[in-house]
Design goal:
Layout: E1 2-4, E2 10-13, H1 14-19, E3 23-28, H2 52-65, E4 73-75, E5 84-86, E6 108-111, E7 117-122, E8 126-132, E9 137-143, H3 145-149, H4 152-162, E10 171-174, E11 184-185, H5 187-196, E12 205-209, E13 212-215, H6 217-227, E14 235-237, E15 262-268
Parallel strand pairs: 4-7, 5-6, 10-14
Antiparallel strand pairs: 1-2, 2-3, 3-15, 6-9, 7-15, 8-9, 8-10, 11-13, 12-13
Bound molecules: zinc ion.
Zinc ion binds next to loops.
């Protein structure tokens, strides 16, 4: 479903690549960059105590590999919330060279403009990509468990509808994230998951021991997209687990917090 590109390694969504040749929809790996130590090597997070010069160089490497220029990218200050912002040319370059200039307290971005590359940082949380070709609506959302239970996925669909997008034409892609093979949570999280989903759908988690559950955050987000009105055929899901695939990804859980970040990016090329 996602395949590795040539150097530097990043993943792109196969189906969209053939269907929308001018769309860039990519998820970076940890390979092909210049960072050292825990951030080796393609860390794109400016907020994780890596050297800024290395992160910026990594972002340049990635943006060039994605047939774009870093000055066309937009980054956000992600806070595990559900705020979504419409962006465009006026925001290009924000947060690319300095974390302070990223769009404040934002976990979802969308636009209908070309040559604006929406980017968010990940290390286990769920990236959700959106595209609707008629209006050229594109969006990206950051859904850890907090953003997930605040229904950032459904909120993005609502914003698209309000912007005039036909819901039946939207395609969503749930990208690489920590899988239920590796993601263990407690009762507090499970209660929030139960609250955000309808009663009949609780197969996204399973009890392992007292107060310990494995949770499939991709499945929860899929259900939230279905609840928001998407049909199953409009949603595709990556099978990659960021914790299992240690040769490809940084993992916040596996690396015990001291690690780099991957970027999820979406944008229309010239
Ligand atoms: Zn796993």
């Amino acid at each position: 479903m996602m395949t590795k590109e040539h150097s530097p390694a990043f993943l792109s969504i196969d189906k969209w690549k053939s269907e929308f040749p001018s769309l860039v929809a990519a998820f970076s790996t940890k390979n092909g960059g210049v960072s050292q130590g825990s951030f080796r090597s393609l860390n794109v997070g400016l907020h994780v105590n890596d050297m800024d010069e290395s992160v910026i160089r990594n972002r340049e490497i990635l943006s060039e590999a994605c047939s774009s220029n870093l000055s066309q990218w937009v980054f956000a200050d992600q806070v595990h919330g559900s705020a979504i912002k419409r962006t465009g040319h006026f925001d290009r370059g924000k947060g690319t060279l300095s974390y302070q200039e990223a769009l404040p307290e934002t976990d979802g971005l969308w636009t209908m403009e070309r040559n604006v590359f929406l980017s968010l940082c990940f290390a286990d949380c769920v990236p959700i990509y959106f595209v609707e070709p008629q209006t050229q609506f594109i969006g990206i959302a950051h859904a850890g468990w907090k953003g997930t239970v605040q229904n950032i996925a459904g909120r993005m669909i609502n914003e698209a509808i309000e912007a005039g997008v036909a819901i039946g034409q939207i395609q969503a892609f749930i990208g690489p994230s920590i899988g239920d093979c590796c993601y263990v949570v407690d009762d507090i999280v499970i209660q929030e998951v139960k609250n955000c989903l309808s009663e009949m759908f609780h197969s996204s988690f399973s009890k392992q021991s007292k107060g310990q559950y494995t949770l499939d955050l991709k499945a929860v987000n899929e259900q939230l997209l279905l609840n928001a009105g998407l049909a199953k055929e409009q949603i595709a899901i990556s099978s990659y687990c960021t914790s299992c695939e240690e040769s490809l990804f940084f993992s916040h859980r596996k690396d015990k917090g001291k690690t780099g970040r991957m970027a999820a990016v979406i944008g229309w090329k010239e």
